[in-house]
Amino acid sequence: MIGVLPTGYGKTSFVRSRLLDRVDKCNLRIAHLLPLRAIVRDATSKALEEARRRGIAEDLIGFQAGIAVDDVDKSPYFARNYMIATVDSYSMSFYGIPVYEVFRDAWHSDVAYALARSFNLLILDEYHLMVSGDEDVDENEAELLVKQANVICSIVKDQVDRGGCTAILTATLPPSLLRVTLSCLEGGSLSGKSIWLVGYGCESLNLYQGYRGVLGELTPHLEVEVQRDTSFEQDFCGCIDTIKVPVSVKNNVVDLNQVIKEHVEPQAKGSCVRTLLIFNSWVRAYKTFEAYGNKLGEELGCKPLLITGKMSEYSRDSVFKELESGDCLCLFATQVIEAGVDISFDVLITEPAPLPALIQRVGRISRYGRPSDINKIVILTSSKGGTEPFVKGIYDVELTRKSLELIFGRQSKTRIDWRCLNESCTSVWNLLSQIDIDYGKKLSQLTQQTTLAEDISYELTRMALLAEPPLKVIERLDNVLKGSFIRKSALIPLIPQNIVHDLEEKLRKIREELERGVDKPKEIAGLRAEARKQVFNAMRRVVTVDTKFIERRGDKYLVLEDNRAKAAVVTLNEYTLDYVSTGLEGLKSSPMSTLWKLHRGSGRLLLGFLLKSDLYDERCGLKPDV
User: Is the pLDDT confidence value at 454 over 60?
Assistant: First the structure.
């Protein structure tokens, strides 16, 4: 089933409310896969609330992602019946690489493989949104989309071959990308099986004609149900002023003075306005926050906050808690906020991006009701170079330029309904179908050069299931895919030097207590639990980066000894903290293999590579080095 619904429609909430009962009463197994860890946290917490409210057993719910969720256990082998996970975590288990054991000397690959492939229903919710990062890396976005689409294709094909059901939910998935995703189903895989295309709008829209064309090639049994939802339109839809404003950028600080004066201050007079500013680069987000955060707070009476992909789980959690307070806020953010997070703002100021990303960003505006005069969208462009200075190395420059042309034409101001079909202004649903032509051209050039060919995925699975040494499997994963099926590369943990020193001191005191001859089992258990708690708290301060960051910035951010990156390793059963080191070249070229070697040893846990304290802020994450 392909479900195409507007942002703010409540796709994830609808799935949760309808399916929890089925999981409980019918013993179904359902995996809900999401693109970002922040969405996994939100979806898991709300699933737990829903289960408690309806008297459903809480232990049916599990999650798997590189985060912690209060009161919900991780289920690293995907053993719970209602699993919520990132696509990244799921893909590892799908190929027989157990994410929980990945750095151990031996794996239970058969368990990971079997459980990942045992779900009755697999939900892929906006899976394509995890591609873009907030680092200028000069990558080809289309290549990353194709890399990811090939993994999703293998997952969907297995689900179809086993007779399971698959639901792809989206507000912005271009039909041309869906074609790449489902390409491995061509040639009879869907023989005798049906596909349902359901969605909001009109079936005559070019967008749905595109979907019909893709799906009709796979099966003659295509059922289509596309219709308007008048109650949703009455409650949530409306035209919003959308304005293009040229600005200058100096030393990675975006000049917002005129934007604030003309487009934010008038909205804020006499009302509590929540303003969201989205940047494509974490460096520009951080430096513009430094320059304008306090000013916006003082002039508009709202609290300045920052959230980027270069922050720890602890720091991001703190920001999300403040966002939920309902206070007047000015949030400076990157792509980590653009999808699936159920938080509403009044005004959006955003750097340019391709249309699907812009739709997701606008989806954070007026989420709980019909847009009003206070709502406004401001899209920034460069006063010198149009869109390129904001998007090069992050998004496709040409697709971004074409997106803005579709939105504005020759004008600098327009009115758009970003959620619904609307006769009184431009509808985003008409724009989506037009941009798909350009996506199709980009993707068609790459489908013959797929990063993950079927034989590679088969080889990795075969190696894992035949109990090849884990390091051999990981080395192959590094060589072919830089350590990740989905991302540009495996993620590398960095931990602030001062956090490590604090943990070292706390563990020393716990060892001393144990060595003094504590003989009461309860006291011993308490000290051991405290040690684990301190290690866990330290790990929540870890910041993860990819190999491109290490290539460009590793020598500036990491603590080096003889050009080797220094890392902290905890031996859990002895409550000791030691230091190891590795060459930067290994981190750049073979990230997973390098991490695996540092984890080796009974009870050893790699906390992360030491991060220079002067380049890290507990509240705001990594500081730009420029």
Answer: no
